[in-house]
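Box S2. Input/output pair 1.
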Amino acid sequence: MPIIQSAKKRVRVAKRQAIENSRTKKSIRLALKKFQEAVASKKGVEEAQNDVQSALDTAVKKGVIEKNKAARKKSQVNAQAKAANGGKRTAASKPKAAAKKATAKKPAAKKPAAKKTTSKK
C-alpha cells in the first residue's frame, strides 16, 4: 500500500480508469457480437457495422486501443459485410462524396476611422 499522498491518488485514478476502459472494451465486444449475428442472419448488417465502427472510433478517441488496431478491425468488418451482401458494397463502406469547397468570402472591408477634428480656438 502506498504511503505518499500522490501515490495513493494514482491508485484511485488508475482504478477508475481501469473500470472505464473495461466498459469501452465491453462495448466493442458487444458491437462485434451483434455484427456477427447480423452477418449470420443477413439482416441489419449496415446498422451493426456502423455500431462497430462507432465503438472502435470511441475507443481510439479515449486511448483504449491503438489507431491501427481499430483500422484493422474496421477493414475486417467491411470485408465481412461485403461478403454477407454477396460482394456488394454496403452504405457504411462506400466512400463519402467529395464535399464541394465553399468559396471563401472575403471579409468586409473595414471603414476608415472617422478623422478627429481638433478645433483651434
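Box S3. Input/output pair 2.
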Amino acid sequence: MSDLTLRDVLDFRPDPWHESAQVWGRLAQGIDDAAEQLIRGSRDLVYVWPDGRASAAAVGKGETLRAEVSNAYNPARRVADVLEQHAYAMVGLRRQAEEIVAAARVAGYRVDLVTGATAPPPSADMAGGLDRSSRATESVLQYLPTVVEYARAQDDATANAIAVNIPSPQVGFGTGRLDGVSRAALEAQAGRSPAEVHAWWESLTPLQQEQVLREFPDLVGQMDGIPISDRDVANRTVLERERSLFQQELSENKAREEFLFKTLEQGELSDVYPKAVDPGTAMADELRRLKYENGELSGKLRGIDAITTRLNDMGLPAAYLIGFSSDGDGQVIVSVGDPDTADNVLTYVPGTGEHLSKVGAGLQRIDDMAADTALVLQQEIRFRAR
C-alpha cells in the first residue's frame, strides 16, 4: 500500500513523470520500428531457405524473436500511458489539496502536512463549540483525508500497472502470440473517426499489424487513421496483386485469340460456336470484345507500371501510395513525402476524363509541384532569416 502523505501530494511535480512517459513512448516507438524491420526482413526466410536442420533452426529462432519483440511493444506503450495519466491525475489531486489547505490557513487553522491533522484557531472556540465560520471551514477540511486517500490509490494503481508490464526475468515478454485480427474486426473500424482508428491500430502488436497488412491490404489501404507508411505497404500489395491479375487475364485473352485463329485455319469454328447461326460472325464479335478488353487491360498495366516505377525511384523524394483502385477509369492517390509528418500539404486533383493508363503524366505533375513548393518554402525561409 502507498504511504503518500499530504506533503507528498502538495509537493508533487508532474514534469519528471511527463518526461519519463516520453522516454517510454520513444522506447515503444523504437520497439515498433525494430519489430517491423525484423518481421519484414525475416518473414520470407522459410521460402528462400526451406530445407535442412539449420533452416528449421533459423526459422524457429526467427519466429521466437519476432514474437518477443512484438510482445514488448504494448507493455512499453502501456507504461508510457500510465505515467502520463498518473501525472495528470496527481496534478488534479494536488490542486484540490492546495485549495483546501489554503482555505484552512486563511481561517487560521493549523494543518499538519505529514498526518493531515488540523486544529482550529483558539478564537474559533465559542462556549465550547465552533463559530459559524469555523464550522464552514471544518466542512471543507473533512475532504482533505479523502484527497490523500485518492492519491494513495492512484499511486498504488500506477505501481501495479508498471509492475504487470515489466518483463519477466525468466522469459522476458514471452513468445506467445495474441489472437489474429479478423476481417470483421477491421471492417468494424470503418465507421469510426480517424483518431479512433489510429488508437485501435496502435493497440495492436507489430505481429498483429503485420497479419492485418498481409491478409486484408484492401481494407487497410483505404482506412483513414492508419499511418500512411502502413497504408502504403497495404496499397503496394494491392497494386501488385492487381498487376498479376491483369497480366493473367491479358495472357488468357491472347491465348484465346490464338486458339480462335488456329481453329479458323482448321475449319472447326462450328465446334467452338455450336449454337451460332454464323460461326464466323460469332468469332468476329468475340475478337472485337477481346480486343477491347486487351486495350483496357494493357492501359491499366501501363498505369500500374508507371506507379510502381515512381514508387521505387530512389532518385526522387520518397512517394507513398495512399489509395488505389482499378475499378472503372481507376483511382490513384500518391503522396510525395509523408503527409503524417509534413508541415505543409499541397493537393493536386486531375481533371475529369483521366484514366489509369495516363497516370504517368499526373505523377510527373505532382513531382514538379513538390519541387516547386519546396523551392518556394526554401526561399521564404531564407527571406525570413535575413
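Caption for Box S3: Residues 122 and 318 are 76 Å apart (CA to CA). The beta strands are 110-111, 118-119, 125-126, 129-130, 319-325, 331-336.
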